[in-house]
């Protein structure tokens, strides 16, 4: 925060969240809300803010469109919070101009890949209790991660105990592919489902054939009985 205070040392007059400090320098506006005991993202952040500091608070969730009205945002610092949930559309509206997004030091176990892969921003995701899975692997390979922090993305939990406590990058470099594991699981589930439907069709066909045979036997019995009854009547 001291760096931001030095960089943006001139207060600006437009509306500012009551728990934050708003400054401006060379036309770039910053909202500094570090260590303010915030439990959610302030609703009244000025629309023309460029730098937003929300670090060292108690924010637990980033809801959909949390920054959608802040089209000038270039940097968001959400590090050292208690974030556990990030909605799929959390960063909708800021994808084009955002350059840096810091989510390090939170409680994030998993994240919808759609929330991050649309961003061009440099991401910091270190020091979270990650569950190593396919979505996180895709984020690692496809998103723009800060190279200085990528090795601190560690598997807090994983499908296999041997991966726990290891950096995700190290696990993947060893040849592990979490997405192929998920694909195999889906293939097995699809096979079981198809087998179940096939078995139901077979049972239905057998019952149908048996039912028709029983009806045919009954019909044949009636036909045999009819001439005998007619002859007896004569």
Automatic annotation (TrEMBL):
Main location: membrane
Sequence intervals crossing the membrane: 188-209
Record key words, sorted: Leucine-rich repeat, Membrane, Repeat, Signal, Transmembrane, Transmembrane helix
InterPro entries: Leu-rich_rpt, Leu-rich_rpt_typical-subtyp, LRR_dom_sf, LRR_TM_domain-containing, LRRNT
Domain of life: Eukaryota
One Gene Ontology cellular component: plasma membrane
Keyword Cytoplasm attributed: no
All copies of domain LRRNT, residue ranges: 15-51
Signal peptide per UniProt: 1-15
PROSITE patterns reported for this sequence: LRR (PS51450)
Topological relation to the membrane, as annotated: Single-pass membrane protein
Keyword Membrane attributed: yes
Compartment(s) of residence: Membrane
Family stated for the protein in its record: Belongs to the LRRC3 family.
Name this polypeptide is given: Leucine-rich repeat-containing protein 3
Organism field: Erpornis zantholeuca
Gene: Lrrc3
């Amino acid at each position: 925060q001291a760096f931001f205070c030095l960089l943006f040392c001139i207060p600006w007059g437009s509306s500012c969240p009551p728990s934050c400090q708003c400054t401006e320098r060379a036309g770039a506006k910053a909202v500094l809300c570090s260590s303010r005991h915030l439990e959610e993202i302030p609703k009244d952040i000025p629309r023309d803010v460029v730098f937003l500091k929300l670090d060292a608070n108690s924010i637990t969730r980033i809801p959909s469109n949390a920054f959608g009205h802040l089209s000038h945002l270039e940097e968001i610092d959400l590090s050292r919070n208690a974030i556990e949930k990030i909605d799929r559309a959390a960063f909708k509206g800021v994808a084009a101009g955002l350059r840096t997004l810091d989510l390090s030091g939170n409680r994030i176990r998993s994240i919808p890949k759609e929330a991050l892969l649309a961003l061009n921003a440099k991401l910091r995701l270190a020091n979270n209790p990650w569950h190593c899975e396919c979505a996180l692997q895709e984020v690692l390979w496809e998103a723009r991660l800060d190279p200085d922090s990528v090795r601190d993305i560690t598997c807090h939990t994983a499908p296999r105990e041997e991966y726990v406590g290891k950096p995700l990058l190290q696990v993947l470099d060893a040849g592990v592919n979490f997405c192929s594991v998920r694909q195999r699981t889906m293939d097995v589930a699809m096979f079981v489902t198809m087998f179940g439907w096939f078995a139901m069709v077979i049972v239905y066909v057998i019952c149908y054939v048996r039912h028709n045979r029983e009806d045919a036997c009954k019909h044949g019995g009636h036909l045999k009985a009819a001439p005998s009854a007619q002859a007896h009547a004569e």
